[in-house]
Amino acid sequence: MSQKLVYEHPLNERIRTFLRLEHLFAKAEHFLGGEDPWETRAAIEALLEIVTVTARADVKNELLRELDRHSAALNRIRRQAGVHVDTLDQILAELGEAVAALHALDGQVGQRARDDGLLKAVAQRTAIPGGTCSFDLPLYHSWLAQPGAVRGEWLAAWMEDMRPASEAIGLILTLTRTSASPRPETAPLGFFQESLDSQLPAQMIRVGLEAQEGLFPEISGHKNRYSIRFMEVVDGAKPVQSRDDVAFSLTCCLF
Q: 20 to 30 A Cα–Cα from 230, which one of 126, 128, 179, 189?
């Protein structure tokens, strides 16, 4: 059975940040309910990375601006022929709920985790290889020895003021990904490039490729142009550009 892998490439810094946070939220959620202390460690690593990303960018206001932009765009198409008004109203309601949840946050995204003493101690040691072992952080070692249910309550509390951001990012990226349909394309000798309309700024590129082909795309670009090189690895050597014509699916997400 064939398996198609989808590779995404952001075309602006805002979407780049949202994709990174989506990845980290998915990792955190995967390990949150784990009973094993190693699963808790993985969840905390993800939480600390979320805290780092949200400290570098004003994610809360970036999300609010993006949610408002989506709402305005959807309201403009309400009277167009073929628009399913009930579905449109449902999406607008979800956008409104996401805005309200973000406004209800006391402070920035992840503020509770950012101010927590235990997480601060762990964060100070994560840059050191093996820096969170038991002799470096006996407090952490002691905390990890608590029952899984107790650790889970702590994790849930740290995640509480991150969930509005996680849900807003999920909604924005879903709308972005579904804003256009994939189209079949071919990359002659493994290379493809395309110019973009500056009046219709694209948000991200999505490339679909059969996993069995043993290729992967290297995508580079910005709001005006992007290029794709399809690379292959032969006998573990450095990847090289394919010399074959490569069939793939391409989605240029404009919303």
A: 179
**Residue in this structure with the two tokens 């082909």, named with its chain if needed:** 213
Helix 85-103 × helix 59-76 angle, to 10°: 160
Mean pLDDT of each 10-residue bin along the chain, 255 residues long: 87 95 97 94 96 88 94 85 84 96 91 94 92 94 95 94 96 94 96 88 92 89 90 86 95 90
Query: Pairing state of beta strands 215-221 and 204-210?
Result: unpaired
